[in-house]
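[Meeting: bench + compute handoff]

Bench side (C.D.) handed over the final construct sequence. Compute side (W.E.) agreed to return the predicted structure before the next meeting so the bench team could plan truncations. Sequence as handed over:
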Amino acid sequence: MTLQISRAGRERMPALARVLARAFVDDPVIRWPLPADVDDIGPGPFDVHVGLRRPRRSRHGVGGGRWHGVAVWVPPGRAEQLIASDRRVREQLLPLTDDGGRRYGVLWDWIEDQLPDEPHWFLDALGVEPSRQSGGIGTALLRWGLERAAADDVPVTLETGRLDTIRYYERFGFRVVHEGEPEPAGPHVWFMRLDP
């Protein structure tokens, strides 16, 4: 089966946000700022994440009539978009938190501090419909961004709170360059990098 990767227009943003919401439902980085009794955060915060309100981000998906995977890439020189969308996600998640969004602010301020100052491509999100995982969709979306970064001759960076994804990204040449927690009770986060 040939996977068709295409840039997602604004009309696809709600569908892609739903894919991310399902793919990240148990992600430690997403879950930590929220109370334990919040079962479903819904697609709202992911609307911002994929750029529903910020159409200049590079969003690509795999699918036809129904989208099964999405990658959100931040090209060099667009770090301010990442920070701006984070601020909007904070506003979306605030009603779901039990601490006025404190944990979320601590987490993402800390993550932003770890990003390199040099030009780089940043993999903001890579999510695949749970029922379609292990079918090559994530790999196709990842390779799309890696090809662009190679053409620009710049590194690629990402962060993850899942140990299993470290092994996945290492298969493509990524290495862990930093790891830690935003505070003692926070999730463990690994920062990875692939040099040109």
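W.E. noted at the follow-up: The two ends are 30 Å apart (CA to CA). C.D. will use this when planning the next construct.
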